[in-house]
Design a protein that fits this description.
23 strands, six-stranded mixed sheet, alpha+beta, disordered C terminus, globular, about 450 residues
Length: about 450
């Protein structure tokens, strides 16, 4: 039997999973790593951490499963989008990666808009200039760290750095490249016009593929480090949410999914280009060749609940450890004791700025309506409800764009926090009346 390996380079950790030919998970492993915030609004990670976590994960799933290296037929990559990895002429990393939730590039976004013009930028990249996108990060390094920019010879995204370490190939694919703001979204290729007007050398980004295409093969060095067979193929893969769309069957019109990780996303497939002229949601190439998707984002979704847990739920963490359950399970039980509406307490989940529907990098989280009647449990419920309200904002924009949704899936850790649940994280279908659907 042949096996397939998936590697997801996430923000909190890298998950490696091995699947048999029926799609059944044979083994999986997650390796975590830190997020660095040297200043308010900054967010960075070490590419070496992603690679070390990948090596650890591959070795772990091979050992757990007992599957011989030669039986792994191919590797697919997914991961966090928008992060900037800069390599020098020797292929060495020049600085920490500025990742998706970093908000330092407001001035560079204005520069991008001035250089291209708002309407032309939308026509080519299908999105306004955003602080989370890669192009503004490139300009920030050029403006603030010119000595590093001068040494830069290659620009990669997080999962594509792992591809480079596996295969030696400098490549990406259309779904992830869409979030760089350098891609011609209608034509699914790098935009010479954008690169020229931003004065970014055409040689910096790697070759762009469609998601199912083979992009390279495992090198001898990578094979020695991971325990896989030299020559194992590595396909394009997809950005995290484009990959989730394939996994949940959101590959044709009328289908959508909601997921909550560090950020929260509402994602809908479309066979035609649909663009919000106000730029409140993203339009990207999807993992299905010749198709696109629209996506609304709440940047501080699961992050909001994790922030609350880490700062205010010490007792729950201690009790959960004694009970052998997840702290989030106990937090769920506490939130259930609070009525819907959290006793008129509202939470705005903008810990890392806003994206949908408020394009504001300076937006910050708020508890609104706080009074002496409120308890910590009210605040906990308000955090959960605030994330849900924010995700519903995305649905409103989709309706304005004429993107019809008949079927909504839910996936990711945010949809199921039951202790020791065998099906936790598997996609579930939401009924129409529960999904906020038109």
């Amino acid at each position: 039997m042949a096996y397939l390996m998936g590697i997801d380079i996430g923000t909190s950790g890298t998950k490696t999973a091995l699947f048999d030919e029926t799609g059944t998970v044979v083994a999986s492993h997650t390796a975590e790593y830190p997020l660095y915030q040297p200043q308010n609004g900054y967010a960075e990670q070490e590419p070496a951490d992603w690679w070390n976590a990948t090596v650890e994960g591959i070795r772990a799933v091979l050992a757990e499963s007992g599957v011989p290296a030669g039986a792994v037929a191919g590797i697919g990559l997914s991961g966090q989008m928008h992060g900037l990895v800069m390599l020098d002429e020797r292929g060495e990393v020049l600085r920490r990666s500025i990742i998706w939730c970093d908000q330092r590039t407001a001035a560079e976004c204005e520069e991008i808009t001035q250089r291209l013009g708002y309407d032309r930028l939308i026509a080519i990249t299908a999105n306004p200039a955003l602080t989370g996108f890669t192009a503004s990060k490139i300009l920030w390094v050029r403006n603030h760290e010119p000595e590093i920019y001068e040494k830069c010879r290659h620009i990669l995204l997080p999962k594509d750095y792992v591809r480079y370490m596996l295969t030696g190939e400098l490549a990406t694919e259309v779904s992830d490249a869409s979030g760089m703001q350098l891609l011609d979204i209608p034509h699914r290729c790098w935009s010479d016009e954008v690169l020229d007007k931003l004065e970014i050398d055409r040689s910096l980004p790697g070759k762009v593929y469609e998601s199912p295409e083979v992009t390279g093969k495992l090198t001898r060095r990578a094979a020695e480090l991971t325990g896989l067979a030299e020559g194992t193929i590595v396909v394009g893969g997809a950005g995290d949410n484009a990959a989730a769309a394939v996994g949940t069957g959101v590959v044709r019109d009328g289908r959508a999914f909601t997921t909550i990780g560090t950020s929260g996303v509402v994602f809908a497939h479309t066979d035609r280009m649909a663009i919000d002229p106000k730029g409140r949601v993203h339009t990207f190439c999807c993992a299905v060749p010749g198709a696109w998707h629209v996506m609304g984002v709440t940047q501080g979704a699961g992050l909001s609940l994790k922030w609350f847990r880490d700062n205010f739920c010490g007792a729950e963490k201690e009790a959960a450890a004694l009970m052998g359950v997840d702290p989030y399970y106990l937090m769920d039980k506490e939130a259930e004791t609070v009525p819907v509406g959290a006793n008129k307490l509202l939470y705005l989940p903008y810990l890392m700025g806003g994206r949908t529907p408020h394009l504001d990098p300076d937006a910050r989280g708020v508890f609104f309506g706080l009074s002496a009647i409120h308890t910590r449990k009210d605040m906990l419920r308000a955090v959960m409800e605030g994330v849900a309200y924010s995700l519903n904002d995305c649905m409103g924009v989709f309706r304005e764009m004429g993107v019809a949704i008949d079927d909504m899936m839910a996936c990711g850790g945010g949809r199921d926090q039951r202790p020791l649940a065998a099906d936790a994280g598997r996609p579930v279908r939401l009924r129409r009346q529960n999904a906020g659907l038109p």
